[in-house]
Design brief:
alpha/beta; Aspartate Aminotransferase, domain 1; Aspartate Aminotransferase, domain 2; 2 domains; seven-stranded mixed beta sheet; three-stranded antiparallel beta sheet; 12 helices; binds pyridoxal-5'-phosphate
């Protein structure tokens, strides 16, 4: 650290210069996170000094957090479910598996079963909790196969996980069938809806054929959903919900201060900015506002698909949510070449023939046009 500080203006100017290195959103097609809604940005900025690790001081922020949780619980079909705002999908999945682990202290070598497209955060979670992750086969649309799940369950299985919107494909596992299997085996069933949680309810309202994934499905024990993704809140805003308070309380820890007598999440000192931002965007948009955004995202995605297919590119599967995967044999090279031209897209390390394009709030038709034109100069459609 320097002995004498620098002028604040100079430091801020340096930072502004550093931020210019960030790729502008208009060239970003790999990110599920996007430009937050203005209400979220304003509310978050106003609460940057808060600490939800001290509830004696930040009573108002705490109230905003509770209100945000109640709105999301309502969206998930169970206003009296027990939720926590957390730092993101990773922490939400961790807390859900912590609960699942606590339920079965009798199993010495616990395992969980999930589809091959389970998010890599579950790999971290299993490593931390000493759980073996068993991944099972997918169908042609990259959804977990219930028959494969059934086969993978054994005496050590403590939980089954369904993904409602995989990161790689936006694929939604057959949640109802998986929940029924979990019930038959008396297993804990967690739904990772970090990506799909803020799309599926609105897409269903628009008539898209997507499975229900929330607490209206018997057997769903917990759900992860991220306001900082399609919820348009600021980072870090994740959320985990348990069907009962009892489940949530199974991981309750006492602190030695009165300010937060009990903890239900991993992080102690934590900003209330994301809670305020999440409440602000939920209230500002309401169900109709999110539905309109979802309608728009599907429209732009449809335009992208149409433009790609018209040029002769083929998709690996019809998209369920707002993630498009193009079948390209040399997808990694194409990704690198696009990045050299300033475009950020992604390719899964597991499915290397898929160029993955995410459509979210900052993507519009003009951006799609610019992207497809650029793609054509880099990789002509192959002879499939
Ligand atoms: C399905 C799914 N689960 C979990 C996560 C992890 O979320 P985070 O990066 O917010 O921890 C993601 C992130 O993209 C995701 O798509």
């Amino acid at each position: 650290m320097r002995k004498h500080g620098r002028a604040q203006d100079e430091v801020l100017a340096e930072l502004a210069g550093l931020r210019e290195r960030d790729v502008p959103w208009k060239r970003v097609l790999n990110s599920i996170c996007t430009v937050p809604h203005e209400a979220a940005l304003l509310a978050g900025q106003a609460a940057l000094d808060s600490n939800l690790g001290d509830l004696r001081i930040f009573r108002g922020c705490r109230a905003a957090e509770q209100k945000a949780l109640a709105l999301m619980g309502d969206l998930l079909g169970k206003p009296d479910c027990a939720g926590s705002l957390v730092s993101g999908g990773t922490e939400a999945n961790l807390l859900a598996m912590y609960v699942a682990r606590k339920r079965r202290p009798d199993i010495a070598q616990p395992e969980i079963v999930a589809g091959e497209t389970v998010h890599y955060s579950l790999g971290k979670v299993c490593d931390l909790l000493g759980i073996r992750l068993r991944t099972v086969a997918l169908d042609a649309r990259f959804r977990m196969r219930p028959d494969a799940a059934r086969e993978a369950i054994n005496g050590n299985t403590i939980a089954l996980i369904g993904t409602a919107g995989s990161s790689e494909f936006g694929a939604v596992d057959p949640i109802g069938e998986l929940a029924a299997i979990a019930q038959q085996h008396e297993l804990y069933f967690h739904v990772d809806a970090a990506t799909g949680g803020f799309i599926i309810p609105f897409a269903r309202a628009l008539g898209h054929d997507l499975p229900q994934f929330d607490f209206s499905v018997p057997g769903v024990c917990s759900i992860a959903m991220d306001p900082h993704k399609y919820g348009l809140s600021i980072i870090p805003a994740g959320a985990v919900f348990f069907r009962t308070q009892e489940l949530r309380d199974s991981i309750q820890l006492e602190s030695f201060f009165n300010a937060t007598p009990t903890h239900h999440s991993l992080i102690g000192t934590r900003s209330g900015a994301a809670a305020a931002a999440t409440y602000a965007v939920l209230e500002t948009l309401g169900f109709d506002g999110y539905t309109e955004i979802t309608r728009r995202n599907y429209r732009v995605m449809g335009y992208l698909v149409e433009r790609l297919e018209r040029q002769g590119y083929r998709l690996v599967a019809p998209p369920q949510l707002n993630i498009v995967n193009v079948d390209l044999p040399d997808a990694v090279e194409v990704m690198r070449a696009l990045e050299e031209c300033g475009w950020i897209i992604s390719v899964s390390k597991r499915f290397r023939h898929c160029l993955r394009l995410v459509v979210t709030q900052h993507v519009d038709e003009a951006m799609v046009d610019a992207f497809v034109e650029r793609l054509l100069t880099i990789a002509a459609p192959p002879a499939y």
